[in-house]
Structure formats: C-alpha cells, structure tokens
Specification:
The complex is a heterodimer. In chain A, α5 packs parallel to α6. Chain A has nine helices and ten strands. In chain A, the strands form two sheets. A six-stranded mixed beta sheet of chain A has the order 6-7-8-3-9-10, sandwiched between helices. In chain A, strands 2-1-4-5 form a four-stranded antiparallel beta sheet, with helices on one face. In chain A, 35% of the residues lie in helices and 23% in strands. In chain B, α1 packs parallel to α6 (130-152), α2 (33-49) packs across α9 and α7 packs across α9. Chain B is mostly helical. Classes of the chains: A alpha/beta, B mainly alpha. The A-B interface holds A 74-77, 79-80, 83-84, 86, 90-98, 101-102, 104-106, 108-118, 144, 164 and B 151-152, 154-160, 162-163, 166-167, 169-178, 180, 233.
C-alpha cells in the first residue's frame, strides 16, 4: 500500500549545519499492517512520519501510496487519506471551539463548502461516538475543548481522526505527554479503533513493551536508518531483553536506556 | 448626541467586525484595513458623483476591499512574508490607488449628492426625524451583516476558518489548504471594512484618502472593549459584542471630544487615548486569565489532595 524507495532527508545541505535525518530508506507497508517504531531521540522516526505525511519533502527518493506517486503532493492533500496524531494534545483540536464544532470540522476531509451540516442527526451521531470513549464527554458537547484534560483531548483527537476513516494513521508518540492512567486509556482506544476499522497504522513509541505488545510488525531505527524489522511470529516472541540485545549486536554499543525506557 | 454615538458605533462596527475576523478568528493581524477603509469610501464617492446605482456602488466597494484583502493574503502566502508586513505593503500601495480612484485628488465632497443616507432620511425622516432615521438604517444594516456572518461561521467552511487561528496544523490535517482559508478570511474582512468606509463617506459627506488613518486601532479597541463587556464562545454573542464594543468606543471618543477640554484634552489627543484604552484592555484581560488559571490550579490541587486523603484511609 505504501512504498518508500530510497527516501532520504538532509537538512541544510552543503552548510556546516548539514544533518542527515534519514538515510536512503526502502519501506513497504501492507494494507492492515500495524507497525510500531522505536528508537532513541534523533533516530529519524519523526522525520520518517513527516516525509510520509508530506510535512517535509524528501531530499531523494519517491513515496507511493496505493501506486500513486505522492512525493510532491503537499501535506494538506495527503491529509485527505492520512490521519496523524502528535505527541502534543493541543495540536489535534481547536481549543477555543466547542467539542461538536471540532468534530464537525473533522467529520469529512477536504475543502469545506458553505453548507451547514451540524444538525440534530449529526449531533446525535457525535454523541453516540463520544459515549464510546467512556469519559463523560457526551454531556459536554457545547464546552470549549480547552476545558478538557490532556488525556480527554487526545482521546477526542483519536476519535475525530477515525471519523473520516483514513487509509493510514500515523501516531507520533501520542501518549507520551499523558499520565500513565490516561496513556493506558488512549492506547486501549487506539487498539480498539485500529481493530474495529482495520486501519493501517504506524505508531512511534518510546516504550519497548508497548512496541512489542501492539501491532504485527516492529521497526527499530537508529541514526537515520531502520536497523531492525521484525514481523509476524518472530515479533510475537520478542522480549524487551531481546530488543536491547539485538540492538547491541547490530550497533556494537549500548542502547541509551534513559532515552528508550525499558518498561 | 446619543443617536450620533449609536450611528457611529454601528457604522464603524461593521469595520470592527472585519477586524474581529482577522485579529481574533484568523489570528492574522492585518493592517491593510487602513487602506481598504478609504478604498471603500473612494469607490462609493466616485460612484455617487457619477450616478452609479447605489446598491451596485456598495457591492463594488465590498468587492474592492475583498480584492485588496486577497492581495495581502497572497503576498503572505506566496512570498512567505510575515502577515504584518504583507498588510503594510497593501496599505501603502492602496494610498496611491485610492488617490487614483478619487480622480487624482485627495478629497471628494459628497454634500448635496443623492446617497443611500439621503434617501433614507427622505423616506424615514418625516416619521422619526433625520438622526433617528439614519440610526434605524444602520441598525438594520449592521444586524443583517452580523446575522449573515453568524450563519457563515456555522457552515463547514466557517467552522474550519474558526479553527484556523487556533490551530493551523489541525486545519492542514483535515485536508484543507490553509492558504485558501487565509485568502477567504482576509478578503471577507477587508470587504466588510471597505463597506464600512463606503457608509462612512456618505455619512460624513466626503471621501478622503486619509480617512483610514489608524482606523485599525479604533477597530481593535472596539473588539477589545467588546471582549471586556461579554464573555462567551458562541459566535452570535461574539459578533454582537463587537458591535457593542464599537458603540462604547465611540461613546468614549465622543466624551473626549466634547468634554475633554475640561482637562485640557484636544481632539489631537484622541489617538493617545485610544492607545491607552487598548493597553488598559490588555492589562485587564491578562489579569483575568491569570486569576482564572490560578483558580483552576487551586481547584485541581484541592481535588488531588482530597483524592489522596481518601486513598490513605
């Protein structure tokens, strides 16, 4: 479904500040894949997402989605079929607008016309969706989103993203800014939606256990390249110790354990 | 006196609605307003003198403002120039254009010409007197514009525009090109400002290339005074408070003009007063948010400590 061929990204090429964020990378993502991505800071995980989402354009290589070359397609176009959630819960919702207005904006992707679509039937549908979150948000549809907690906001962002049924979702450490309890809730919701709507998913996480528990395929990145790619049977047998051990063997150095937490 | 304040408040309130769209909804501080206000006045003035149908003249003024706003947005979008600079560029260029529109002069008198206001006075004047006739007219016009704006901000496009100033990333994530939204928003805003300028020319009886000077500050002061009066997240109230803020602002300016001499104020001091008014609103709103935030913090701390207390028991 997604095909990266020789995609690389270098910032400030030809200057003293030149940084290679992603070395030439080939990657195939099949429909229905749930890929977890781990790696220390600066490994190139977010750069990879920014390239797939179209926030950056690659220095070299091509990106194809469903056999269509999207390498030069701007971010807002690709957003029509790619859903993305950031670490910062503020980035997914408009704080000074009400819950229902936020949901309406996300209900259908693409350019909006002069139609008033937020009617009673739609409100009822949104309410049903909010009940599923189990956070009591269904009674707060007229409240401004900035009154919600970070966990509630991120759960809402997740729900709003799913409303438009994207072909691919990119989760960029979407629970890292939440407290453990809320992080668990949001992760459970993530798994529920991914299974329910068979979403093709890529999820960056700092938590190795999560990377092992979730998904059918695991990528480990370091220094701008994918150094480990395990899937299926092999992945389900992985343990955190395995991961640390394999990193050590590949890279011949210790994994910085403060950055990639072990539990 | 009171009808004068009300009329001016509503007339310039249309301009303040435009400023509200850019400053508050789009978060795009647009200074082209100082040029689009006299642009509207100039288009109206020339149309009146040349006998163009008046409703058509108003539409042309609106369209002129729309086009000028679109220029500002395009400079910002395509040349990646900060929005403030884009607005200043348009404003500066408009000064020359406005003189062209006026027929190579800086001022065009409209006294004893057939304008919309003179028609309104002819129609309603015998019933309620000329001053109140003008007031009724502006009340209807400004409320009509307000209701149309409210409707617009309930549409899918309007909602998305509302999210724009809050969170551009969200708009991009929804598959909407933010450049288009800025173009529409800044265009609409300047269209309203030019419309307000067109009415101002008829009300004051002349179109002048300098009548837009620091109008942006007057608009901003009106918006901020309005926020001071009413707090809400409903668009219907947000727009009404802009109009109310504009009326209060004109009231304050009126007091300054007529009673200011008791404390040695001259009309030249009004801009200083406007600036101080904005600074005062900023201080008050800052104080308010700080107080609200510390109250919220206290509440959550109390909730946390009582929850912890229960846990121990």
């Amino acid at each position: 479904m997604i095909r990266l061929d020789g995609v690389s990204k270098t910032f400030h090429p030809g200057t003293v500040n030149e940084v290679t964020a992603l070395r030439p990378t080939d990657l195939r993502v099949a429909e229905g894949d749930f890929i977890t991505i781990i790696g220390s800071n600066g490994a190139g995980k977010s750069t990879l997402f920014n390239l797939v989402a179209g926030a950056y354009s690659p220095s070299a290589g091509t990106i194809r989605i469903n056999d269509i070359d999207v390498t030069r397609q701007p971010e807002y176009r690709r957003a029509g079929y790619i859903g993305r959630i950031f670490q910062d819960p503020m980035l997914g919702t408009a704080g000074s607008m009400t819950l229902e207005d936020n949901m309406m904006i996300c209900y259908r992707k693409g350019f909006k016309g002069l139609r008033i679509s937020l009617n009673r039937r739609r409100r009822e549908y949104f309410r049903e969706q909010l009940v599923d979150l189990n956070m009591g948000l269904e009674s707060r549809m007229k409240d401004n989103v900035k009154l919600l907690s970070g966990g509630q906001r991120q759960a809402l962002t997740l729900l709003m993203m799913v409303l438009s049924r994207p072909a691919l979702i990119l989760l960029d450490e979407h629970t890292a800014a939440l407290d453990p309890k809320n992080a668990a809730v949001v992760l459970d919701l993530t798994r529920k939606y991914v299974e329910e709507y068979r979403l093709t998913t890529m999820m960056i996480t700092h938590n190795m256990q999560h990377a092992i528990d979730y998904g059918n395929r695991l990528l480990m990145m370091d220094n701008g390249e994918v150094i480990l790619d395990v899937s299926g049977e092999e992945k389900s047998r992985l343990t955190v110790e395995d991961l640390v051990d394999r990193f050590h063997r590949i890279r011949n150095r210790e994994l910085e354990s403060d950055e990639a937490r072990l539990s | 006196m009171i009808e004068g304040i009300l009329v001016e408040g509503l007339l310039y309130g249309i301009m303040a609605l435009g400023v509200f769209i850019t400053f508050r909804i789009l978060d795009f501080p647009d200074l082209s307003v100082d040029g689009t206000f006299p642009l509207g006045a100039a288009i109206m003035g020339v149309s009146v003198v040349n006998g163009v149908p008046l409703v058509l003249a108003l539409l042309m003024a609106f369209a002129g403002g729309l086009a000028a706003g679109a220029v500002t947005a395009t400079i910002h979008n395509k040349l990646k120039v900060p929005n403030l600079l884009a607005g200043i560029l348009t404003m500066t260029m408009l000064w020359s254009i406005n003189i062209r529109v006026l027929g190579n002069r800086a001022n065009l008198p409209l006294l004893r010409q057939n304008t919309i206001l003179s028609q309104v006075v002819d129609l309603l004047g015998p019933v309620v007197g000329p001053d109140w006739a003008v007031f009724v007219f502006f009340l209807v016009v400004s409320l009509l514009i307000k209701v149309l704006l409210d409707l617009f901000f309930h549409t899918d496009l309007g909602l998305t525009l509302g999210a724009m100033g809050d969170n551009q990333q969200m708009v991009v994530s929804q598959g909407v090109n933010p450049e288009w939204l800025k173009l529409i928003g800044v265009g609409l805003s300047n269209g309203l400002v030019a419309l307000s300028g067109a009415f101002a020319a008829q009300y004051q009886g002349f179109a002048d290339v300098n009548m837009g000077q620091s109008i942006i500050i007057a608009g901003l002061a009106s918006v901020m005074i309005g926020e001071f009066l009413l707090q809400s997240n409903r668009i219907g109230l947000l727009t009404v408070r802009v109009l109310l803020g504009s009326i209060v602002y004109r009231g304050i300016m009126f007091l300054g003009r007529y009673y200011g001499y008791y404390i040695n104020l001259t009309p030249n001091d009004l801009r200083l007063i406007t600036g101080l008014l904005i600074i005062a609103s900023l201080i008050v709103s800052r104080y308010r948010t700080e107080r609200n935030e510390s109250a919220r913090l206290r509440r959550s701390l109390r909730a946390a400590s009582s929850a912890a207390g229960k846990g121990e028991r």
